Fold this protein.
Amino acid sequence: MTGKKILVVDADVASRNFIARTLQKEPHEIIQAGSGKEGLIIAWRDHPDLIIIEPNLPDLKGEDLASRLRADPRTARTPLVALSSDPTTQRMKSCRDAGFNEFIRKSGEAVSTLIEVIDRLFGSVPTRRQGGLLIVFLGGKGGMGTSSLCANLAMNVALNQPELRVAVADIVLPIGSIAPIVGYEGERNLVTVADLDPGDSTSHFFRDHLTLMTEWRFYLLAGAPDPEVANHLQVGRIQEIIRELRHAYDFVLVDLGRSLSRFAMQVIHQADLVALVIGTDASSVALTKTVLEYLRSRGMSDSTLYPILNRAIGLEGLSKPDVEKELGIEIKTAIPYLGSHFAMANNQHTPFAVKFPKDTAAVIFRECARQMVDTAKHQRSG
Ligand SMILES: Nc1ncnc2c1ncn2[C@@H]1O[C@H](COP(=O)(O)OP(=O)(O)OP(=O)(O)O)[C@@H](O)[C@H]1O
Ligand SMILES: [Mg+2]
């Protein structure tokens, strides 16, 4: 995105400075006004491309300010965003009626929502097309191999293109499981990183401070180590963290587990590819069907999906054609039942391809990783 001039109108100087600091990471010019009247004067004088207004202003109601901006030809078409400390639906409605394009409640998630809104208003290339390729792993049902596949496929992505840098981020709550799979015991994790000042968790930070899991060939941002710590996670920071990771790495693979929470959906919407891990038992297929319908209802195209059928629970279960018929999608990769081999490799913190290089599954993983990257690239260019 080329730099835009953004005016922030808010009587609270700390709040103004925080917004300015956050937005300045993009190449934007930020100007500030501490009152409604000052906002009007600056808006008409400096012609900002966007105005962010806290509707609770001491001298002039945000709604009145918006109406006056709308009534003047200099600012009639300028996008207006309300960033409101008053979270009520009533306030949202009065702001919309007054001519605000967007209404965002001040909360931990406000910054990431604001960045998304700005991207959308300026019709910039969507975030998903910026930076490294983002592949998220999502499971309809727990225990179907989502985390093991995320780690092992990430390893194979790195194996296929050793000159490129791969990061894995585990955002499964309340306990991440990539760290125990790959044998990471460091202190740094998603929660500690989300606690850093946004100015300190930049792409440079992620480039220099994630641990390279040597055998696995990727850099790890481990998940929450336990529920107690997870409860402190500032989920509003996740989107920003993923964005910075993508600036630092060629590939970012994210274990989402089975979450479709609001923050998970924000990550899913940015993804170049969603690896959907499906088990072969009837309940896994039924749950996946619900997930699929939800994703479709939220505007996700099937072409963004990379369905993986993983026979995690044993030899019995539905066949690939049956699953395809039931879900109305094409399975891209089918992974056979690997007996205790997968669990053994996991328990020894060793990539499957290193532990069992001659197993056909090692070949399947490698080919699957190649296909996923190709599909993700194709999605992005298309
Ligand atoms: N194809 C397979 N053959 C045999 N075992 C498998 C296969 N896929 C996964 N497993 C085993 O299934 C178990 C669960 O795997 P994993 O933890 O990756 O699943 P998950 O979907 O991430 O679970 P959770 O819901 O706990 O996050 C592990 O012991 C793993 O080794
Ligand atoms: Mg898991």
About this structure: Residues 139, 142-148, 172, 177, 257, 310-312, 335, 337-338, 342-343, 346 surround adenosine-5'-triphosphate (ligand 1) (CB under 6 Å).
